Amino acid sequence: xxxxxxxxxxxxxxxxxxxxxxxxxxxxxxxxxxxxxxxxxxxxxxxxxxxxxxxxxxxxxxxxxxxxxxxxxxxxxxxxxxxxxxxxxxxxxxxxxxxxxxxxxxxxxxxxxxxxxxxxxxxxxxxxxxxxxxxxxxxxxxxxxxxxxxxxxxxxxxxxxxxxxxxxxxxxxxxxxxxxxxxxxxxxxxxxxxxxxxxxxxxxxxxxxxxxxxxxxxxxxxxxxxxxxxxxxxxxxxxxxxxxxxxxxxxxxxxxxxxxxxxxxxxxxxxxxxxxxxxxxxxxxxxxxxxxxxxxxxxxxxxxxxxxxxxxxxxxxxxxxxxxxxxxxxxxxxxxxxxxxxxxxxxxxxxxxxxxxxxxxxxxxxxxxxxxxxxxxxxxxxxxxxxxxxxxxxxxxxxxxxxxxxxxxxxxxxxxxxxxxxxxxxxxxxxxxxxxxxxxxxxxxxxxxxxxxxxxxxxxxxxxxxxxxxxxxxxxxxxxxxxxxxxxxxxxxxxxxxxxx
Amino acid sequence: xxxxxxxxxxxxxxxxxxxxxxxxxxxxxxxxxxxxxxxxxxxxxxxxxxxxxxxxxxxxxxxxxxxxxxxxxxxxxxxxxxxxxxxxxxxxxxxxxxxxxxxxxxxxxxxxxxxxxxxxxxxxxxxxxxxxxxxxxxxxxxxxxxxxxxxxxxxxxxxxxxxxxxxxxxxxxxxxxxxxxxxxxxxxxxxxxxxxxxxxxxxxxxxxxxxxxxxxxxxxxxxxxxxxxxxxxxxxxxxxxxxxx
Lengths: 501, 245
Fold this sequence. Notes:
Chain A is of the alpha/beta class. In chain A, 47% of the residues lie in helices and 12% in strands.
C-alpha cells in the first residue's frame, strides 16, 4: 500500500465501501429529519447558532471589495487542480518524501484505517491525540483504532464534547452545534475525572475544564493524528487552519505525526493559498483571519515530530471525479457556509443526513462518495432555494448537482426495478399530458372534480383533506380548490375568434 | 406593436386563472397585444427538478413550438421563467438534442418574468393600479437567486395607489415549497412554511404578495389552515386592481 514515487497504483474507481465509516445513515432523510423536527429545544439551539454564524459571515464578506473575484479565483484554481490531480499528487508525494516524510496511498476507508493502526502499533503506543479532522471522521478511524486497542483522544473542544457524549458530529465546523451549554456541562460532569462538581455552564468555565483535561494528554502522548485543510504540491507542505490552538499542540508536540488527507485537498502552489486563506475563515467562522494556521514540511531535527506520515485517501473520490457535473463537489474547502444558510439544515440538524458531511454540500458529496443507491434520499433534501450556491466560496453549483443526482437516482432505480414505481408511472403520465395543449386541457377536466372536496371558508374555497399523495400537503395546509373555469377555457370562450378588443 | 405571448404556466392555468387574467389586463392597459397560444402546457420544471428530465423533451419541444412565433414571452412565475432560461437548454443538450437546445435558447432570450418585463423591458413602474391594503412582499427564491430580478416587484408596488408596503422579517428565507419537496419531505417543508407564515403575520400586513403562485399557494395554505386573516395575492392581481379608484 505504501510505496515510492511513480509506483503503479491504478485501479478502477469504486465507491466508498459499505460496513465502514460514517457516510451512511440507518434511516432515509425524511424519516431521520423527524427527530430534530419533533425536538423544539434542538430546533431553537440550531436556529440561534446558524443565524449567529451566518450574520457574522455576511458582515465580514461584505467588507471585502473583491469577494466575487476571489470566489472566481477559488473556483478556477479548484477546477484546474482537479484536471491535473494525478500529476499534482505525484508531485506532492515526491516533495513530502524529499523532506523526510513517508507517503501512503489508501484507496478506501479500510486501507487508511489499517495503515494508521499499523503505524501506531509499530511504535508500541496505545494512545493517540487528534486534531479535528473530517477525513478521519469519514472513515471512522477512532472506532477502527479502538478495535485494535488504541484510544484516540479528540482535542478540538466541540469534537471532545461529541466524543465524551458518545455522540456524532452534526456540523462540519461546529460538531456539537446541536448541544447547548447545560447539556455540555452534564456531559463533562459525567465523563471528565476530577472535574469540579460545582462547575457552571459558563462557557469559560467549561473551556477551562476541557483545557486541564486535555493538557495532560498533550504532554504525554507520543502519536498525533490530523487531517489537512491544504497540501501544497510544489513544496510538500501540509496545512491545518483552526481556532483553538489545540490542533497546533497535536501537530508539534508528539514524536510521530500521521496526517490523513482526501486526495482533493491539494493546491498546486504556495501562492494559491493566498486565495483560499482569505476565502476560508470569512466563510467558515465569520472571522477575517482564523487564530491558528499551521504549516509543516517534512521533518526537522530537534523541532517538532521526528516522523511524518501522509495518508492519501480516495474512498470514492476518484469515482466522484469521473462525473463531469458532480465532480465540483470535490472543490469543497469544508467551510460550512452552505450549512449555515440552508433552511433545511437549520430545521433538521446534521444527524438527519446520516453522514459526517451534512447540509447542502453533504447532500451532493455523500451520495457520490457512497454511490447514489446507498443515499437515494439525500439529493432530495433541498428545496433548490439556491442560498448555498450564493455563499459557496468556491462557487459549487449545489442546486445544479442536486438536480443532476436526482436524475441519476431515478435512472438507477428504473434500471433495477422489474415494475415501474407509482411515481414513475405518475410522472410519465403527467409528462404525456403536459406535452400538448389539447391533452393538457383534457387532463384539467377531472382535476375540476377537486371542487367536490372543497368547502367555502370565509369567501374562499379550499380543500382540507386530499387523497394520497396530496394528503401529505393537506396534513399541514389547505389546498386551493380548482376554479370553475381554467384560464385556457376562459380565453377560448372570451378571446378566441375576434373577441379580443 | 410588440406581440406578447403569455405562458400562463400549468399551475396558474389550472388553479389560479385570475393571475393569468390579471397579466392580460395589466399588459393591455399598457397597450400591449397579448396572445395565449392554446398549444402551450408546461415548461417541465417539476419533472426536471424531480429527476425525470429524460421525460421532458416533448414538453420542451411543445413549449418552443408554442412560443417561437412571439417577439416577447411573459411568464407570471419566476421559477418557470428560470426553468426556461436556465434549465431547458441544459436538459436538451444532456439528453442529446442539441438543435432543440439552440431553439430553446433563442426563445429563452425573449422570455421574461412578469415584473421583469414591466420594469426592465417595458420600462414601466406605474401601471395605474390602486389597491388600498397593507401588503408585504415575499421575494421567492428563484426570483431572488436564479433570475436575480431584485427589487422590480417592490418598485412596482411602491407606485400602486393606496398601497402600504411593510417589511417581511427574514424575507429571503425559502418558504419550503420546493415542488415535490413539499410531498417527499412533507414534515421539513411544513416546519419551513410555518416559520414563513409566522413572519407574514408578524409583518402586520393584510396581504402577502409574490411573483410565484406556487409559493403563495404554500404560504396561503398554512395561513388558511391557521384561520389567519392574511390573504395571499399574486403581484399581477395587485397591479391589475383599480380598487377604490
